[in-house]
Amino acid sequence: MLLAIDTSAGTSVAVVDPASGRAVAERSTDDSRRHAEVVGPFLAEVLAEAGITGADVTGVVAGMGPGPFTGLRVGIAAARTFAAARGVPVLPLVSHDAVAADQEQDGPFVVLTDARRREVYWSAYDRTGTRVAGPGLARPADLDEAIRASRPDAVGWDRVTVATIPAWRLGALAADRLASGAPFADDSPLYLRDPDVTMPGAPKRVVR
After folding, report:
1. What pTM does this model have?
2. SS3 helix, strand, coil % of the chain, rounded to 5?
3. What residues are paired with 172 via a beta bridge?
4. What is the pLDDT of residues 80-124, one digit of tens each?
5. Fewer CB in 10 Å around end: N or C, the chain?
6. pLDDT above 70: residue 197
7. What pLDDT is attached to residue 167?
8. Following CA atoms 192, 193, 197, 201 in sequence, which dihedral angle do they give, to the nearest 10 degrees?
């Protein structure tokens, strides 16, 4: 069984049967501020519903973003910790790829997710569902310009905005790649910008 975790937008956790690519159990929430509170209970619930234990998990699929630093790191840390404890591999994937694979529409489109700070993350996909530009980060007013700089013809493509990433679809994508031998994504979080935390400067001099 594959365990899939994504916290790049909301929080989504699923157990996926790699033989069929189907979800055996899934939990998700659109809440983008409670990742650390819900990911643990979600993990316990999907394992219980699937009727398995950690020993039955053969790989942990991790959504690598793009996503805000605070939320994204929760899912990646959970995936890496679970995998290390069970001695199984982490299978990293770009989170937007799950959204693209979940679309039923024909034709190219651009996937959008909330990046906070009045910005959005975007990725462009062609008619086959292959990512051809992005992931990128832009303010809504500058989105057309950002897309045009990477893929000019994608500016007019339909746009798909989602509040959470379907972890079960990440698991299905991972199952396909394992079966075909296709490569996974880099094992590096796609924050696309620096975290809010900054290092303090030197102490001010006190003049007496």
Report:
1. 0.91
2. 35, 25, 40
3. none
4. 999 999 999 999 999 999 999 999 877 899 999 999 999 999 999
5. C
6. no
7. 98
8. 140
**Three-class DSSP category at 88:** coil
The strand pairing partners of 93, in sequence order, are 63
Half-sphere exposure of 140 (CA within 13 A, CB side): 8
Tokens of 208: 């007496």
Closest to 116 (Cα-Cα) out of 95, 101, 98, 137: 137
Q: Residue 13, SS3?
A: strand
- Nearest to 130, CA basis, from 151, 113, 145, 115: 151
Provide the 3-class DSSP secondary structure of residue 8.
coil
Residue appearing with tokens 């979080």: 189
**β-pairing, 158-161 with 109-116?**
parallel
118: DSSP letter: T
SS3 117: coil
- Number of other CB atoms surrounding residue 96 within 10 Å: 30
Alpha helices in 2-87 (DSSP H): 35-50, 69-86
d(C-alpha 39, C-alpha 43), whole Å = 6
- 26 pLDDT above the threshold of 90: yes
